[in-house]
Write a structure and sequence with these properties.
The protein has about 400 residues and is mainly alpha-helical. Helices cover about 70% and strands about 0% of the residues. A hairpin with a 2-residue loop joins strand 1 and strand 2. The protein is globular, with a radius of gyration of 22 Å.
């Protein structure tokens, strides 16, 4: 077979999502060159009046929050000793680790002088919330890397370091829970310094608590979505016996979160903003309705929770509402005071989509070559394809 024919066969095996990923990667590479050669002004629609946009609101705030499933599940399994959830811990930890790496990558795009990102290590400012977030993110990323090591040890049959590492599991989980709690809430604390700029539909002194609770709920939702996507990609069955109890917990968490949001509106007078639905009011109603009220109403019924389609739909709505909340706090709620209507540029969107694509690709590679999932027989008739191509037996 000649070279042209071989190339044609390889191209014929490239699926739709693989082609999309390749295009995204090429586009992101081009934007990266422009970003570092010509600066933020040439690649974004940011300005002095509106310095934080999509790369903070989506890449950082959403990326950190959606990774909360890892510390939630590791605490459930290793601290509360609910071992039946152990089969879904490894995928959750891997998702979180990749998520934090992509958060750091997003920061390298957003920072005006990214080569100074290491300054937080030596120039201490313990009174700064951002300083605390930087340190917690760095330390928790290191914790997640360590929590992923047993998978590598198992893959290469390194029994001695794997047994030794078991002794560190509980201390690592405790440190991880502490660090996650600190910076999930501190991301909300970043916006406490702008009471006159953040719209009253979102500003409250309870922002740190609301950020933490919503991250726990969205983290559980992301675990359910990740299990569903893994089932579709790798021909696995959906572990309903594990995900349905998690959905019940998610309903309780979202219920508490929703009641707190309503109480805040009643206390600070923000409820008046909803009498005549303008731009901010409409975005708030969509966020709370789609991301909190609707999934709580759906998943409160056992018939919906125990249905794969209903469970995944509810989890998707939770994740969607979480993303809307973070974008509303970082973008929608800040636009009126800034006097601008921020719309991300095509380059900003391309970078964000590229980072998401890299996350899917990295998870796909790890799931193919590392023992991320427990050994189970695939579903009959499953295609067994991942983002990077068909899985070989």
């Amino acid at each position: 077979m000649n070279h042209t024919a071989t190339l044609g066969v390889r191209l014929s095996r490239v699926g739709f999502w693989q082609a999309v990923f390749g295009l995204l990667l090429l586009g992101m590479g081009g934007v990266t060159v422009v970003r570092y050669m010509r600066g933020l002004g040439a690649t974004t629609n940011l300005s002095d009046a509106f310095p934080w946009g999509l790369w903070i609101g989506f890449d950082v705030l959403c990326g950190v929050g959606l990774a909360a499933g890892a510390f939630t599940l590791t605490a459930v399994v290793h601290l509360f000793n609910l071992r039946r959830f152990e089969p879904i811990v490894r995928p959750a930890v891997l998702t979180a680790f990749l998520g934090y790496l992509l958060v750091i990558a997003g920061l390298l795009f957003d920072l005006g002088q990214p080569w100074r990102i290491w300054h937080a290590l030596v120039f201490w400012n313990p009174r700064s919330v951002m300083f605390e977030v930087a340190w917690c993110v760095m330390l928790y990323t290191a914790v997640l890397a360590l929590e992923c090591l047993p998978v590598v040890f198992e893959r290469f049959r390194l029994e001695r370091p794997r047994r030794l590492f078991r002794l560190l599991t509980t201390p690592l989980v405790i440190v991880g829970v502490i660090l996650s709690t600190l910076h999930q809430s501190s991301l909300g604390s970043l916006y406490l310094i702008v009471p006159l700029k953040l719209h009253p539909l979102w500003y409250t002194p309870l922002l740190p608590l609301l950020f933490f609770i919503s991250a726990v709920g969205a983290g559980i939702g992301m675990v359910i979505l990740e299990s569903y996507l893994s089932q579709r990609a790798f021909g696995r069955h959906l572990e309903m016996e594990l995900l349905e109890p998690l959905a019940r917990v998610m309903v309780v968490v979202l219920g508490v979160y929703g009641l707190l949001r309503i109480q805040v509106l009643l206390r600070n007078g923000g409820i008046a903003e909803l009498r005549h639905l303008g731009y901010e009011g409409s975005m708030f109603a969509l966020e709370l309705g789609l991301g909190t009220v609707l999934p709580v109403l759906l998943l409160a019924f056992a018939r919906v929770r125990t249905s794969p389609k209903g469970l995944v739909t509810g989890a998707f709505l939770v994740v969607l509402g979480f993303v809307m909340n973070r974008l509303n706090v970082s973008v929608t709620g800040m636009e009126a005071a800034a006097g601008v209507r921020y719309v991300p540029s095509g380059m900003e969107i391309l970078v964000s989509l590229g980072l998401v694509g890299l996350g899917f690709a990295a998870f796909s590679l790890a799931a193919r070559y590392l023992p991320i999932f427990p050994e189970k027989r695939p579903r009959p008739g499953a295609r067994g394809e991942d983002l990077l191509g068909p899985v070989e037996d």
